[in-house]
């Protein structure tokens, strides 16, 4: 999955998707179609974690997609977050794919942050500091350095790559 989800492709897809979603959310008729993405639904598992469901209908692709995710913060020897992404053909309801949601979430979250940074930053950023760790810290470093030519970057945690430029 990592070989397929290249950041440069994700940047373009997310920018198009965010624009389409914004148009759909504002009630505007989007030229590329309609997106229906309700707020996620969560089921609490007392003292353990939660199970979340995040569905979306994408008219332009004729797809129904849902991410199913669990978060069990007390997990020690296994990941605290686990996910799958189920893809259905919206024309007939037939399942088309069951994908590793962990890799998709990691890459998509970091790519979304890079796209947001592109649109919100004043000029071209030169310095990156990551105040975080683990998978998300590393993936954000990868995405942001793929989008921007940084002069200096670093992290507050040792398990995230540091490049002092």
From TrEMBL:
Q: Which domain of life is it from?
A: Eukaryota
The EC category is oxidoreductase
Which EC number(s) does the record attach to this protein?
Answer: 1.5.1.1, 1.5.1.25
Q: Which family does it belong to?
A: Belongs to the ornithine cyclodeaminase/mu-crystallin family.
GO CC, alphabetical:
cytoplasm
Give the matching SUPFAM superfamilies.
NAD(P)-binding Rossmann-fold domains
Give the protein name, as stated in the record.
Answer: Ketimine reductase mu-crystallin
Reactions mediated catalytically: (3R)-1,4-thiomorpholine-3-carboxylate + NAD(+) = 3,4-dehydrothiomorpholine-3-carboxylate + NADH + 2 H(+); L-proline + NAD(+) = 1-pyrroline-2-carboxylate + NADH + H(+); L-pipecolate + NADP(+) = Delta(1)-piperideine-2-carboxylate + NADPH + H(+); (3R)-1,4-thiomorpholine-3-carboxylate + NADP(+) = 3,4-dehydrothiomorpholine-3-carboxylate + NADPH + 2 H(+)
Quaternary structure and interacting proteins, as annotated: Homodimer. Binds the thyroid hormone triiodothyronine (T3); T3 binding inhibits enzymatic activity.
Q: Which GO terms describe its molecular function?
A: hormone binding; pyrroline-2-carboxylate reductase activity; thiomorpholine-carboxylate dehydrogenase activity
- Name the Pfam families on file: OCD_Mu_crystall (PF02423)
């Amino acid at each position: 999955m990592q070989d397929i989800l290249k950041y440069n492709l994700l940047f373009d897809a997310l920018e198009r998707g965010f624009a389409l979603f914004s148009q759909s959310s504002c009630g505007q008729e989007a030229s590329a179609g309609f997106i229906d993405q309700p707020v996620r639904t969560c089921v609490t598992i007392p003292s353990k974690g939660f199970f979340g469901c995040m569905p979306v209908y994408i008219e332009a692709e004729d797809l129904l997609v849902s991410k199913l995710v669990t978060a069990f913060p007390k997990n020690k020897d296994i990941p605290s977050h686990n996910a799958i992404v189920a893809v259905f053909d919206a024309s007939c309801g037939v399942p088309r794919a069951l994908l590793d949601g962990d890799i998709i979430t990691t890459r998509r979250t970091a790519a979304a942050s890079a796209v947001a940074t592109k649109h919100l930053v004043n000029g071209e950023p030169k310095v990156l500091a990551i105040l975080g760790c683990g998978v998300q810290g590393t993936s954000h470093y990868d995405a942001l350095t793929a989008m921007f030519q940084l002069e200096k970057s670093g992290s507050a945690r040792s398990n995230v790559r540091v490049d002092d430029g």
